[in-house]
Amino acid sequence: MKSTSSSSSKSKDKPHSKLGPGEYKPDIAFRRIEDLPKPKIIKETRTKPERPCLRCGKPASREHIYLRRLHDVGDLVSGHPQELHITYSQHHCKACDKYFSTDLTDVAPPGSHYTHRVIALALRVVVEDGLAYRNASWQLWRDHRVFVPFATIQNWVEAGGKKGERTLGKRLSGVGTRRLFGLSGGR
Fold it and tell me: How far apart are CA 142 and CA 76, in angstroms?
């Protein structure tokens, strides 16, 4: 009898063999934005001493240098979100007295804090997959390590048309995400 009790105690102390690629580690529920992991910073520079004026085409000298911070899809290997820090220049054309900045619309819409990739991903999760706004916000964090408040996702969806409303054939919104954000390609 002693041998059975000692063998059973040994089996309790042994680590169980794991199946699959690794051990599942559940995500921590964050209650505040300040508790989120610090982002991985990716720096990019788009400054030049001179650029041609958008109005008259003459060379315009650089007046100021600014920094734009954008949230991008996160790094799943490290588990941290990614933030793009783009340094860009503002120029002044003395011929037509016009100020203009370096074009960043290939990365993000004007005034947005999120890249085109994040916006398109959020819209796809809500419109095509049919998730609620809060669930979509959580899924974006869980699967892509980018925090987008559910109200922001709701604003993006409502800017493109009503959620789930079939107005133009197979499209789910009146405008469509590709046309709304100027994305090329189609189905």
Answer: 10
